[in-house]
Write a structure and sequence with these properties.
about 270 residues, mainly alpha, Endonuclease Iii, domain 2, Endonuclease III, domain 1, about 50% helix, disordered C terminus
Length: about 270
């Protein structure tokens, strides 16, 4: 006859489970200081890989940049650059664009996705710039996001490239890489923007977000990222070869004090 296994109470089982969990080494959670150091290292590598941060959208002035960025939503820069020369030739000023009929704007941008909605946004935006801002594109985040077709991403592009004001433009590439690199766990672009602002000094915001976009297009693709030859592979927890915690012993850098008290996303920048 087979011997019965000794009876083990629930309390004893729980005690053994707790002891097992205690013995199992848990990965150390990255501190804010460590994450800032890792973000800084990523910024350096990306700056070496993509030294230029010029806007790829062709434009001659701030209003043309505004129009081009609005048109670039869910569309490639190359496609936008094909239609904007004719658009700017026909409607070179906010006033002229505001007075144009939708039937005049739509044929010029028909090759772009959502061209009807974009035509309405362009016309309304031009009206606002003409009537509310005396024909000049506003230079603050709060005023820019009041314009039709302009969200925080578009506003930060305008601020960074037209006015030299720090801003992080979170598009689909920036969002994906921020999460993949472990710099943010958020899904909302505004919260991702806030997380990145906490990690880097303001003077790096525009260039860093622009380079994330470039790297997302070039190597860190959504479905098949090229991890093996990635320039930030060493600092990426998603790659399996991250050495993020090697920064744990670093002292707080002089720049930390300048961006440790980042304002909320509503008032950032």
């Amino acid at each position: 006859m087979r011997e019965r296994a000794p009876f083990v109470s629930d309390a004893a089982s729980k005690q053994r489970l707790r002891a097992c969990r205690t013995r199992t080494a848990r990965p150390k959670r990255e501190s804010l200081q460590e994450k800032r150091a890792r973000a800084g290292a990523i910024a350096v590598r990306l700056a070496q890989e993509y030294p230029g941060v010029e806007c790829p959208l062709q434009h001659k002035n701030t209003f043309e940049l505004l129009v081009a960025v609005i048109l670039s939503a869910q569309c490639t820069d190359a496609a936008v650059n094909k239609v904007t020369p004719e658009l700017f030739r026909r409607f070179p000023t906010p006033e002229m664009l505001s007075q144009a009929a939708l039937g005049e704007i739509e044929p010029v941008i028909r090759t772009l996705g959502l061209f009807r909605a974009k035509a309405r946004s362009l016309k309304r935006c031009a009206q606002q710039v003409t009537e509310e801002f005396n024909g000049q594109v506003p230079a603050t985040l709060e005023e820019l996001i009041r314009l039709a077709g302009v969200g925080r991403k578009t506003a930060n592009v305008i601020l960074g490239h037209a006015f030299g004001k720090p801003g992080i433009a979170v598009d689909t590439h920036c969002k994906r890489l921020s999460r993949r690199l472990g710099l943010s766990r958020q899904q909302d672009p505004t919260k991702i923007e806030y997380d990145l602002c906490r990690l880097l000094p303001p003077e790096q915001w525009t260039g860093f977000s622009h380079r994330l976009i470039l790297h997302g297009r070039a190597a860190c693709h959504a479905r098949r990222p090229e991890c093996e030859g990635c320039v930030v592979n060493q600092f990426c927890p998603s790659s399996g070869s991250s050495t993020a915690h090697q920064f744990a012993s670093l002292e707080q850098s002089p720049n930390d004090a300048s961006h440790s008290g980042v304002p909320s996303p509503r008032t950032a920048l």
